[in-house]
């Protein structure tokens, strides 16, 4: 357990160093905050989302061990130009949510960060079953190789290879993606963010490459988010408790 925490801290620290300098030439022009501001925002928004996601997770999974809902936030420093966010499980059983560096560089505002984090947490909360395992070794190699090159100790490398293996294996069905959008909308709203603004990220990521290519078309996802936002607004206006379905 301790190793995983240390590893995550190391990766975050590494990312701050890597993303801070110079203007990165890779991503779109519309970025309106610096890389350092993006990392700070990710950690700040992540703390608020994590507490809501953990509460919702425990409500929906009362018989699971405590570790099942004890989310960790991570930055994936793998060298790539493709924005990606994912949820996976550490070898200690705790769920991990990670943004890679292009994703951090591309998100436009806190609402987008909140929505994407909520969506990823929702896969764990809703017990979505993973299908497809053919990419598992690729993910393990990328992350493990990177850490080996950076001089991490063997335990950390093994840990990273376990994480990477799970990472590559993650590919959800489209119905699971839409379900995660509904739960993610609730999590973002309950944490005080605007899911409708957050969902605008679909226009950029919805049909994108990598793992995100398994997601349904962005128009369909936006419609699901808008319906959910309306339902939450109606419940709030009527003074009803916001119950995550
Ligand atoms: Zn998803």
Instruction: Give the cofactors and ligands.
Output: zinc ion
What is the strand tally? 3
Task: Give the neighbour order of strands across the main sheet.
Answer: 1-3-2
Distance between the termini: 32 Å
Largest sheet: 3 strands, mixed
Structural class: mainly alpha
Q: Please give the count of helices.
A: 10
Arithmetic mean of pLDDT: 73
What is the string of SSEs from the N terminus onward? Answer: HHEEEHHHHHHHH
Shape: globular
Q: What low-confidence regions span 5 or more consecutive residues with pLDDT below 50?
A: 1-30, 131-158, 164-169, 207-213
Proportion of residues in helical segments: 55-70%
Query: What proportion strand?
Result: 5-15%
Rg, rounded, reads 17 Å
Topology:
Elements: H1 2-19, H2 35-60, E1 72-76, E2 85-89, E3 95-100, H3 101-106, H4 110-125, H5 136-149, H6 154-169, H7 174-190, H8 195-198, H9 202-205, H10 218-237
Bound molecules: zinc ion.
Zinc ion binds next to helix 4 and helix 7.
Provide tags for this entry.
3 strands; three-stranded mixed sheet; mainly alpha; binds zinc ion; 10 helices; 245 residues
What does it look like?
This protein is mainly α and 245 residues long. The chain has a domain at 2-172. Helix content is 58%, strand content 7%. It contains 10 helices and 3 strands. It has helices at 2-19, 35-60, 101-106, 110-125, 136-149, 154-169, 174-190, 195-198, 202-205, 218-237, and strands spanning 72-76, 85-89, 95-100. The chain has a 3-stranded mixed β-sheet with strand order 1-3-2, with helices on both faces. Strand 2 (85-89) and strand 3 form a beta hairpin. The protein starts with a helix and ends in an 8-residue tail after the last helix. Zinc ion (ZN) binds next to helix 4 and helix 7.
